[in-house]
Design goal:
By secondary structure, the protein is of the alpha+beta class. The chain is built from five helices and seven strands. α1 crosses α4 (147-164). The radius of gyration is 18 Å and the shape is globular.
Amino acid sequence: MTTHDQPRVTPLRRPPVRQATLVRSDVEHTFEVLVREIGAWWPVQPFSAGQDQVRDVTVEQRVGGRVYETWQDGTVVEWGELLVWQPPHRFAMTWTSTPAPTEVELTFTALGPALTRVAVEHRGWESLTEAQLSEDCALPGGYTSGGYSTGWATILGCLATAAETPVSTGTTLGDRNGDHHR
């Protein structure tokens, strides 16, 4: 086969956003903190539709399960649907917070008895127009200017802090947002 007979490799025009962090916690605990306690640590300001109205975030733990936020008034805003569910090592979901649906995959790799690498890959940017790629997300500039990359790095940092810090019982999302209930 000559060089001109070989198939052409088309470069990926819109590569996935990839971020990772190390968490000083075992893989099972880290996974559980993400899926069961997401409402306590997820930075709803600015990374949610409802911002300070959000009272909880829920992951329905099964393929086809929804990931959604619930507001103080009961409004539900869906973030996506689980496509892959492999606890405690991996899950993938549609991401409907973009102008057209994309996909987010999180992987959890045990590097030791109390050390986990958490990686996120946000892909599917081909479904967005050039204008949509530049639209602001929670952060200015969207995909084109690195808003999603910065956002996922921030979110993973919050997960690491939550998984490494014992959670006091009785703390709610409202408490974190300054709405203390007695």
